[in-house]
């Protein structure tokens, strides 16, 4: 018993992937933030949990001795089932930089809908594997617009602090920031923001800041300082693989099945739900189809994954009584990217830490919060680069397309115009102050704005509309949504702390009342 934690964790791992014909009390679809919170708290409450994840485990080094590929040298590991990379910055000096890669169940999915590319993490840990780790709690005055039916006192007193503690959120040491080479780009960003009268704020992150200091000093293997981002971080980032997931495995009650993709959930004749699962190989072929029954199913496949599944299941008659709100209220968190060309005296540094640590806050006045982002190319570019989160009011809808047997998303590229206008409230002014111009070579030839993508999909099974106020899916007792799909399109800052905190709130209520 004294050795209970680790020994049980080993047993759970040894149990192997989920078997066809199994009956489980709880099945969780997806291993990102929402799924990890649900599995941990259910397991701690004594419930056995099966987690099913379409991506890989990401626990085994490749031929280069590293688990994850570097941003400057993408390979098969970098993209989900593509034969060519789909880099968010597609061009440099106008030249396309995408390259051929072998088709593989890689870590970053660039999922293409008609009007937008939605980037998502694939693997055990979900988006935490690929993201920048920026861990931002929204300003309290903005919370009412983010989740209007959630008690803000409870969130700010209990669930945001709980999420921040579990995720290991910390802040860059300001004195170190002021001197270190790898944040020269952010210091240029700060100076220029302040010269134009905008507040520059430090942004918390889950990166291990002590480790980054050692990276910069050259005493440990480099990760952020070697430009690792988008395709995984080999060392310093506290992804879910270092926080919630070891903790839930240590309960001995959770089994994770990687390379398993849920394709159907429908009521089972004897009660509970029948879940159909495709087991995949690393080129994405289905090797086995499994059928299991679960008393309860938590949809934690991310905003897009959960919305696609629920939209398909409702339209195809598997779960016809789901709310008509399913698929609605989807937003891109107002993401838009832009680069600026600096004068030679504002060099941004050849070595740039891939973890952003600061932003320009013009939310109240202009509807934009801009991360000062790295451009870790390994050479001096004299470029400043930004990912803005804006108050874009547009919301799209998922719908089932019977001709293609796929789920479509109604977002249109032109719907990014409000985001561009809001971002311009910051960057037009900075350009005027600095006598600088926008870069037009990063997203194509003569294209200023990165308006074709989002990193922050939100909504599609919106809280208190498609579900009750705690994520119980209307129409089907025992089915829950517990991920970014619950949030109606915008969080005013980077979303994963809010997704985690909301999941902590909801699972606490569900355990207390449903189990
Ligand atoms: P998520 O983490 O996406 O997990 C869903 C999981 O379900 C994934 O592992 C999927 O592979 C899996 N899945 C999907 N469909 C199925 C299926 N049918 N069967 C089995 N498994 C399935 O969901 N947010 C921040 O707050 N700060 C940042 O700095 C930041 N940077 C980002 C950078 C990039 C490049 C990207 C792509 C995202 C970034 N985000 C950031 C967004 C953040 O990662 C995202 O909001 C969360 O990961 C969403 O959490 P969920 O739990 O909703």
UniProtKB/TrEMBL annotation:
Entry's Gene Ontology BP terms: cholesterol metabolic process
GO molecular function list: cholesterol oxidase activity; flavin adenine dinucleotide binding; steroid Delta-isomerase activity
Highest rank taxon of the organism: Bacteria
SUPFAM superfamilies (alphabetical): FAD-linked reductases, C-terminal domain, FAD/NAD(P)-binding domain
Keyword Transferase: no
Cited Pfam families: GMC_oxred_C, GMC_oxred_C_1st, GMC_oxred_N
Cofactor: FAD
Family: Belongs to the GMC oxidoreductase family.
Record protein name field: Cholesterol oxidase
